[in-house]
Write the structure tokens for this entry.
Amino acid sequence: MKKLLSLILFTLSLVSVPLSAQTDTLITKNGQTLIGEIKKLSQGVIHLKTDYSKSDFEIKWKKIKAIYSPRFFTITLSDRMRLLGRINGKTDSLIIITKYNNQIATDAEHVVRLDKFNDNIFKRFSASFSLGLNLAKANNLRQFTMRSALGYFTKDWRSSASFDMVFNEQDEIDRTKRIDAQVSYNYFLKYQWFLFASADFLQNEEQKLKLRTTPKIGLGNYIFQSNRAYLSVAGGIALNIETYIDPNITGRNNAEGFLTSELNMFDFGDVDILSTISIYKSFDSKKRIRTDFKFDLKYDLPYDIFIKMGFTINYDTEPVKGASVSDYVIQTTLGWELD
């Protein structure tokens, strides 16, 4: 009987190992203990799934006193180092144990991002969709705007796509439409360097563009990264391919060098700010310089709903004859995001 009881206890102990390995613990600075499954740390917020709540807990990283987890995460540090390992301890004296059993001491201020390793493939997606509508009695003005984005993230690379559209209709005035889209792929290197390939698409009637296609490749680096913001700079080679609304205007193809910078600020209450500027210098024309600037201000509401105000301007020192040197659009939309 004693042998049978010992065998049962031994078997239960073996079973309990993988079960306990599925338990993560967070201790907040106000003394609360939360047990569940850490989904990720992103933009200064740690997401925890529990059995006693239908929705994930979202706790500011700066409010956490200690973290204990047997899981492997892809860990991004503020000094541009990316690691695969486990993280445990008080937030002022964290220990990261890498997959090679090396130990690295750090603190919460230097931990920028956590992503579960080998998570469900569908949980690596992020997406957002928003709409805006403006109506005016004068000339029966109707303006429709749509913004959408889709992303996928792994420990080694990230891909994304976006599609923005503005459509205007007004009595006694021709309909106008503007479409701005992008696809991109980033491959992460050591010390926060990354290789990237992307393509931009612009249809802009103000600049008489039937379609501008700009495929580009380059190298970039995250100059600064913290729990609340990051700044990246990248540069490379682009090919600018333009066709025009007027069939009598010959299209232009030329090679360009470009420099782009992105500033992303988050965890400022419920407000996020994203700003991007890209400057293109033509190799075929000494005077032609193009600039694209985007600024987005997003305010988060409950249930993953948000309000977003965006400003975009395109500038070209040498547009085709009859076209404006610049065009801008302001969009205000209400939307929902999956993150």
